[in-house]
Amino acid sequence: MKNRRKKVFERVVNPVLLKYLTKSHSSEVSIAKGIPMKYLKYFKEVSAHKNAKKIRYRYRGKSKINYNRDQSYCLMNFADTFAVYYR
Question: Per the count of CB atoms within 10 A, which of 16, 49, 71, 72 is most buried?
Answer without folding.
Answer: 16
